[in-house]
Design brief:
It contains 22 helices and eleven strands. The radius of gyration is 23 Å and the shape is globular. Helix 10 (255-273) crosses helix 11. It has 554 residues and is α/β, with parallel strands linked by helices. It has helices spanning 28-39, 44-49, 51-64, 113-119, 126-134, 160-163, 168-179, 206-217, 240-251, 255-273, 275-286, 295-302, 309-312, 317-325, 340-343, 345-353, 356-366, 388-401, 421-431, 435-438, 447-454, 527-540; strands at residues 70-75, 84-92, 102-106, 137-141, 199-204, 224-228, 235-237, 402-404, 464-469, 491-492, 505-510. A nine-stranded mixed sheet has the order 1-2-4-3-5-6-9-11-10, sandwiched between helices. It folds into three domains: 9-62, no CATH class; 73-154 and 166-187 and 200-233 and 453-543, Alpha/Beta hydrolase fold, catalytic domain (Rossmann fold), CATH 3.40.50; 241-438, no CATH class.
């Protein structure tokens, strides 16, 4: 079954987007559902309007898959490996021939089941293509604290003490521990451990970080890696996220939309600053009860306009919103400078508030009844998320990564001034009320310590290909970053010698692309990256040498 054969346009591009909480923890479930919807040929609207159809499609995917979940016992704490938990994984060994590699796809901050059903089975997936070409064994690995790979149950009552083992360092040790004894009953004579078989790790977004970091920290386990759209540099201030959205909107012909959104936010923020007008502007957008929300919570949901940008670019709700905003009720299209200079910012706000996509999306994502499409109004946006995926990822970015996306710098602001570091940090405190007092959650994410451990965007692991998209909001934190505050390293498509570190970055920055587009086989411009990694593997794999020991070093 070809699960992607009917994907068109931007829909195909949300498959592997990752970093689901780009807009805070409450968006994580929505972002993960977008990934799955795109994988099944469904558009973004289907996630909001017909969740039962998405669930049915996922069930159908599982029923047609030949892969079965397996479990490995992994130490909860690698420093004191007494207590164990069961980590889920999936394997396809049907393409294996002696000498072939093990190809690992890491699912990162999500439930791995549906991704295993696709990436290990469907012939259009890049993993299956690699397995066929290199005669390898395919392995999909679920990250600790996600899906069914749970050292402790994850819910609103999970304590900070139980989350203390959800760290980058602990998670990076899981695969090397597992790999030492990996074997397949169908291949009793094959030594598939990294001692005798090259392991190749592929991932996009956070899994892309893990792929590169695994090669860096555990080169005796991971021989080579494809690291796509990986924000390797931990950073609290990620206001550049919206700067990238702004750049993409302008490049794709929505400059008038950016100008009107900028003018609208100036008006909205001024209304919010005045207690006598704050309640009215909130009710205008979200109906009765909306006035009870803080300015931060209210303006956070207005960011829905950009919530799918990293997955769909201008082909999803972002483009739909801009088309609505820049086309009036008579079908007239705004000039290049937008409507605000001629009609005033208030008229832009009125048009924005009338967009039907906003309250529909908010009610689906936040399980509210804002604007009262049903009889009972309910518009409380303050509750921390209850979804386990959102909770686990919140712990990771609140403790180690940061990635706080707030208002981008002047003069291009397309977010409210109430989206601040302090507001996002407060979300961490709300999600984990015992975190700081327990000593397990820092008052601010330990981004500097994370970069000291990994090298961040200055890391130089050998045998790694790096990919990114020009307008991906996460590209400024990758090794390919050309931002003024970034490393501005030289990028080359010349395949480096195997096992040789170098200053230049081996990779490709795809023009007019967003998040993890290069791992999507339906995205034809990404073939340059996929083919380059194939060519690199053909050059690197002959360098692999069997070892007498599987000991890794850190």
């Amino acid at each position: 079954m070809r699960f992607l054969q009917n994907l068109l346009g931007g829909t195909a591009l949300a498959l592997l987007t990752g970093l689901g909480s780009a807009f805070g923890p409450r968006w994580a479930r929505y972002q993960n559902d977008l990934h799955l919807a795109a994988m099944l040929g469904m558009d973004a609207d289907s996630v909001l309007t017909n969740r039962s159809s998405l669930a049915s499609a996922i069930d159908s995917l599982a029923e047609t898959s030949a892969v079965v979940a397996e479990y490995a016992n992994i130490p909860i704490d690698h420093r004191n490996p007494g207590r164990m938990y069961r980590n889920r994984y999936w394997v396809n060994d049907q393409y294996y021939q002696p000498g072939g590699p093990v190809v690992i796809f890491d699912t990162g901050e999500t439930n791995g089941q549906a991704f295993a059903d696709y990436y290990l089975v469907d012939p259009t997936s890049y993993i299956v293509q690699l397995l066929r070409e290199f005669h390898g064994v395919g392995l999909v690995w679920e990250h600790r604290y996600y899906g069914e790979s749970l050292p402790y149950p994850v819910n609103g009552q999970t304590s900070a003490a139980q989350f203390q083992y959800l760290t980058l360092e602990q998670a990076l040790q899981d695969l090397p521990y597992f790999a030492r004894t990996f074997r397949r009953p169908r291949l009793p004579n094959a030594d598939l451990t990294p001692r005798s078989t090259p392991w190749i790790m592929v991932g996009g977004s956070y899994p892309g970080m893990r792929a590169a970091f695994s090669r860096l920290k555990y080169p005796d386990t991971i021989f080579a890696a494809f690291s796509s759209s990986a924000p390797a540099q931990a950073r609290i201030d990620m206001s550049v996220y919206y700067e990238q959205v702004y750049r993409g909107l302008v490049a794709y012909g929505y400059g008038n939309c950016t100008r009107d959104v900028n003018a609208a936010y100036r008006y909205i923020d001024a209304q919010l600053a005045n207690p006598s007008t704050a309640a009215q502007i909130k009710r205008q957008f979200l109906g009765p009860g909306a006035e009870q929300n803080s300015n931060g919570d209210f303006t956070a949901v207005l960011l829905y306009n950009w919530a799918t940008w990293q997955s769909f670019g201008a082909n999803g709700p972002a483009g739909q919103f801009c088309n609505w905003l820049e086309t009036d009720q008579y079908g007239r299209v705004a000039p290049a400078e937008g409507w605000a200079p001629s009609r005033g910012a208030r008229s832009v706000v009125d048009r924005w508030a009338a967009w039907p996509g906003l309250s529909r999306a908010i009610n689906s994502i936040f399980e509210t009844n804002c604007n009262c499409p049903e009889e009972t109004c309910s518009c409380d946006l303050s509750a921390p998320p209850a979804d386990p995926l959102a909770i686990s990822w919140s712990w990771q970015f609140c403790s180690q990564f940061g990635y706080f996306q707030y208002q981008n710098p002047r003069p291009h602001e397309i977010a409210s001034r109430y989206q601040t570091e302090a507001y996002i940090q407060d979300n961490c405190y709300r999600q984990f009320p015992d975190g700081v007092s327990s000593g397990h959650l820092p008052r601010r994410p330990r981004a500097d310590a994370t970069n000291n451990y990994t090298g961040g965007w200055n890391m130089r692991p050998s045998n790694v290909f790096h990919g990114a998209g020009q307008y991906d909001p996460w590209t400024p934190l990758t090794v390919l970053s050309q931002e003024p505050f970034g490393p501005r390293r030289r990028v080359t498509t010349q395949i480096p010698a195997c096992n040789q570190e170098q200053e230049a970055v081996f990779g490709v920055l795809l023009p007019n692309a967003e998040h993890v587009y290069d791992l999507q086989t339906s995205y034809q411009p990404g073939e340059v990256s996929r083919q380059l990694f194939r060519r690199a593997l053909h050059q690197w794999l002959p360098c692999f040498r069997r070892r007498n020991s599987t000991a890794d070093h850190d």
